[in-house]
Design goal:
It comes from Haematococcus lacustris (Green alga). Keywords: Membrane, Transmembrane, Transmembrane helix. This is AAA domain-containing protein. Strands 1-4-3-2-5 form a five-stranded mixed β-sheet, with helices on one face. The radius of gyration is 37 Å and the shape is rod-shaped. The chain contains six helices and five strands. The relative contact order is 0.11. Helices cover about 45% and strands about 10% of the residues. Among the domains are: about 45-135, Signal recognition particle alu RNA binding heterodimer, srp9/1; about 135-175. It has about 200 residues and is α/β, with parallel strands linked by helices. The longest helix is centred in the C-terminal third of the chain and has 25 residues, at about 155-180.
Length: about 200
Amino acid sequence: GLYVCGPRRSASGYADDAGRPDFPSSLAFLLVASVREVIASRTRITTREVAYSDFYTLLDSGRVRAARLESGVGRMYFDMQPLTAPAPAAAAQAATTPAAPMRFQKQYVVKLAERSDSLLVAKILAMGVEYSVLKQTFLSALATTLTTTLAVWIPLLPLLFLFRRIMEDRSSSRKKKSDGRAQPVLTTFADVAGVESAK
């Protein structure tokens, strides 16, 4: 006869693997997303880190054009006004032509002491700097998750190891006690056959 191979089915008629999560597909999706994020990060402009005090100085001098706060990680990206002065003809044309909004570029980054510095945000708004909040990137979210996981589990590893050693010592001591108990010796008639007192 001809046999057709297929997924094993239960008594209800449904396949046994129905409803199970497709782990290879999920892993492939995460891998593709990570590769896309790495490629996108390489094509971006190289970001330079500046000190907090330097950022304040640039802000006071009016050099900062736009600022973006990355939520959840305490980093603020900003770019500055161009230093090159336009030619007189270009300046006159720019005065008569409405200026198109400049695209934000992550030229510089400053680390904040807190994830949301309210005083700094108030100063940025007071200086008329274009300001908004960016969503956390995939790599930043992944790094935050890994850091949190390691921070939780690393202190617990010595305790788990100690607990395992205690359980192994208890099981070995119980085994030694059970092996060391005196087993009853059975005496048969052949053992006392030649002894007068056994008659």
